[in-house]
């Protein structure tokens, strides 16, 4: 399972690509991608938002869904999603 | 303190306007990130894990109370209410918005502060001894030469696109508190046989992926030739630096590959050509800048030995603090006071806006309105009357800035690590916190004595781990954080790089490992020996044994 993560241009905050084709600072609102065809399509759309200067450096990241909530599997992306741990 | 002249003001105002236009174009979609990145970096603006980060220069670590109040205002208005003092004597804001940065730079310019060249492949903030001008052991105040170099290097057209970043540090004291041996150029003040003041020039020191202690390229140079000699070093570097490989682009690599003798030969040849040219600093210019660093109007006071003894006898907390956190001053009746930014539960170097304001008020009241930032991420008031110490201690204690741990285990250098930094591989702040909570007993810390622990969250070594008495380096091993320990590093006048102790440890094991190293030191130390002295006498083996015992030392990471 994957999600698309990026930084928002105006304030740099971490955002997730959503079902409606927008971006949210709340990971729970981000779309969890389970299908390869969706992955290509959505990532292209996200890259287009980069070209239109809405976000910076969109990337696909691996996530696991625990109790209905997505959580990045890599520690770096989990820190990006949920903020500093200290 | 140096005050901006009309050239400084004009240059900065133009620069802010220029950046304002660049940000407007970026927000309007006229510039891509690839086009904008080098422009924002030239103005100290990074994009980190969570947000934009703005690094603001504190030239040679010297700040006025007015500037500190502005830092507080910016923290409150544009950030999340705090800032982070760095190992390069600067301050960083972790949560600024791109759209706010031009206004932030305008606000900073009003109090003569900039973020110019706090990033990018150029000459960065010139750093120095935090006690400059007040230290009893210094030959002369080094800040005047720092300022000369600052004016020379800001927006220098030839050196704005160096192969890589370039860091210069200057010390006026033989006891090096500015870590000059691990800078691209280090300047150490000396007197020659005739008693004239000059500098020993070191080159090619640095930390990061490939650490080196700097080599002496010239034993002594007259102050009027400082700029031309630095220019010769920079020019040779600019010509020979490895622009093809970012990991080999620093001057230390060129000096190591070429050899210091060859590098010296090239520099001396270039210097011979330019030394009597326009870069020869006229005496009147040296005098003009020197006047900005004239000592404050000290009162004629005697040392208050009796008073301090009596106050210490009455108050154990004050006694501990005075012994740990204050330092001898060159003027009788005064003392240098260190404010340790190492409270338990707070990231080293962090300070909230209210505390910044309070520090500014205390600086006005007790230390001629001046504040210093040290590369160990503490602040100092360098001109405090001895008779005011007790009162100041009480005020600092309320602000949690009087923990008597200067140079002790809790006085850790710590980079932001993976909690904030886009380059990091591991978190460093939680490691500092774990160690801090493990060593809470002030008597125990005093008994252990001087032991500098430096923590970096990656090989880039912003936390100076190579030169920590104990260095801790965070690494990523298959998605998990591990921490490699080094022992025996030092950044003082006898600088050395630490030796790797053994395999990396998981986070949970680090405090126990530090405790084991300290216990072994206590069992081995001889009268008056600091940890570093004992380590240099006995070597690494007893400490390997203390941490790993019979375990396979090659296992884990």
Could you provide a short overview of the structure?
Chain A has helices at residues 36-51, 75-82, and strands at 2-8, 14-17, 23-24, 55-66, 69-72.
Task: Give an account of the 3D structure.
The complex is a heterodimer of chains A (86) and B (557). Chain A has helices at 36-51, 75-82; strands at residues 2-8, 14-17, 23-24, 55-66, 69-72. Chain A has 86 residues and is an alpha+beta fold. Chain A has a five-stranded antiparallel sheet with strand order 3-2-1-4-5, covered by helices on one side. In chain A, a hairpin with a 2-residue loop joins β4 and β5 (69-72). The mean pLDDT of chain A is 96. Chain B is an alpha+beta fold. In chain B, strands 16, 17, 18, 19, 20 and 21 form a six-stranded mixed sheet that branches.
The residue ranges of chain B in which pLDDT falls below 50 over 5 or more consecutive positions are none
Terminal Cα span of chain A: 28 Å
Biggest sheet overview of chain B: 6 strands, mixed
Most extensive contact: A-B, 23 and 28 residues
Structural class of chain B: alpha+beta
Q: What's the arrangement of secondary structure elements?
A:
The complex is a heterodimer of chains A (86) and B (557).
Chain A: E1 2-8, E2 14-17, E3 23-24, H1 36-51, E4 55-66, E5 69-72, H2 75-82
Antiparallel strand pairs in A: 1-2, 1-4, 2-3, 4-5
Chain B: H1 6-27, H2 33-41, E1 45-47, E2 52-56, E3 62-64, H3 65-78, E4 82-85, E5 91-96, H4 101-110, E6 127-128, H5 143-153, E7 168-171, E8 185-191, E9 197-203, E10 215-221, H6 226-240, H7 251-258, H8 260-274, H9 283-292, H10 305-314, H11 316-325, E11 326-328, E12 334-339, E13 350-352, H12 353-366, E14 370-373, E15 379-385, H13 389-398, E16 413-414, H14 429-438, H15 442-448, E17 453-456, E18 470-477, E19 480-487, E20 499-500, E21 505-506, H16 510-524, H17 531-538, H18 541-548
Parallel strand pairs in B: 6-7, 7-8, 16-17, 17-18
Antiparallel strand pairs in B: 1-2, 2-5, 3-14, 4-5, 4-13, 8-9, 9-10, 11-12, 12-15, 14-15, 18-19, 19-20, 19-21
Helix pairs in contact in B: 1-2, 1-4, 3-12, 5-9, 6-8, 7-8, 10-11, 14-16, 16-17, 16-18
């Amino acid at each position: 399972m994957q999600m698309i993560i990026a930084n928002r241009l105006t304030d740099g905050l971490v955002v997730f690509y959503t079902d409606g084709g927008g971006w949210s600072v709340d990971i729970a609102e981000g779309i969890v991608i389970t299908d390869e065809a969706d992955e290509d399509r959505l990532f292209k759309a996200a890259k287009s938002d980069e070209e239109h200067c809405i976000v910076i450096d969109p990337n696909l990241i691996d996530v696991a869904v625990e109790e209905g909530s997505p959580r990045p599997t890599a520690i770096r992306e989990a820190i990006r999603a949920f903020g500093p741990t200290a | 303190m140096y005050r901006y002249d009309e050239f400084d003001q004009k240059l900065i105002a133009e620069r802010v306007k220029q950046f304002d236009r660049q940000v407007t174009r970026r927000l309007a979609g006229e510039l891509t990130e690839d086009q904008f990145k080098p422009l924002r970096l030239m103005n100290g603006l990074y994009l980190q894990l969570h947000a934009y980060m703005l690094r603001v220069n504190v030239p040679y670590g010297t700040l006025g109370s007015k500037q500190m109040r502005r830092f507080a205002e910016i923290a409150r208005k544009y950030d999340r209410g705090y800032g982070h003092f760095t190992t390069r004597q600067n301050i960083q804001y972790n949560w600024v918005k791109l759209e706010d940065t031009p206004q932030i730079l305008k606000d900073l310019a009003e109090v003569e502060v900039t973020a110019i060249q706090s990033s990018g492949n150029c000459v960065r903030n010139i750093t120095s001894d935090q006690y400059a001008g007040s230290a009893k052991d210094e030959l002369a105040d080094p800040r005047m030469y720092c300022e000369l170099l600052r004016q020379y290097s800001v927006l220098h057209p030839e050196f704005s696109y160096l192969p890589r970043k370039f860091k210069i540090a200057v010390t006026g004291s033989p006891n090096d508190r500015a870590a000059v041996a691990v800078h691209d150029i280090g300047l150490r003040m000396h007197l020659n046989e005739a008693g004239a003041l000059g500098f020993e020039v070191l080159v090619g020191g640095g930390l990061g992926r490939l650490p080196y202690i700097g080599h002496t390229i010239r034993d002594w140079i007259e102050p009027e030739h400082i700029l031309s000699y630095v220019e010769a070093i920079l020019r040779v570097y600019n010509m020979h630096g490895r622009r093809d490989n970012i990991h080999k682009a620093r001057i230390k690599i060129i000096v190591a590959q070429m050899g210091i003798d060859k590098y010296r030969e090239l520099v001396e040849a270039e210097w011979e050509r330019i030394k009597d040219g326009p870069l020869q600093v006229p005496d009147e210019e040296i005098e003009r800048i020197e006047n900005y660093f004239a000592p404050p109007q000290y009162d004629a006071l005697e040392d208050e030995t009796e008073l301090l003894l009596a106050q210490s006898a009455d108050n154990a907390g004050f006694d501990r603090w005075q012994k740990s956190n204050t330092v001898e001053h060159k003027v009788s009746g005064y003392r240098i006071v260190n404010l340790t930014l190492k409270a338990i539960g707070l990231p080293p170097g962090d300070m909230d806006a209210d505390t910044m304001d309070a520090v500014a008020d205390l600086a006005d009241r007790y230390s001629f309105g001046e504040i210093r930032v040290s590369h160990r991420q503490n602040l100092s008031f360098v001109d405090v009357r001895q008779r005011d110490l007790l009162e100041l201690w009480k005020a600092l204690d309320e602000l949690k800035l009087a923990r008597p741990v200067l140079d002790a285990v809790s006085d850790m250098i710590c980079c932001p690590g993976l909690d904030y930094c886009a380059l990091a591989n591991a978190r460093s702040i939680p490691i500092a916190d774990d160690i801090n909570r493990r060593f809470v007993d002030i008597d125990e810390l005093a008994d252990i004595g001087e032991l500098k622990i430096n923590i970096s969250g990656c090989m880039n070594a912003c936390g100076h781990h190579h030169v920590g008495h104990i260095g801790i380096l965070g690494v990523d091993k298959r998605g998990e954080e591990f921490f490699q320990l080094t022992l025996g590093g030092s950044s003082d006048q006898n600088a050395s790089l630490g030796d790797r102790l053994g395999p990396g440890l998981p986070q949970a094991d680090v405090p126990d490992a530090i405790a084991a190293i300290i216990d072994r030191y206590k069992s081995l130390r001889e009268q008056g020996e600091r940890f570093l002295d004992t380590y240099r006498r006995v070597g690494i083996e007893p400490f390997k044994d203390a941490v790993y015992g019979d375990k396979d030392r090659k296992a884990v990471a």
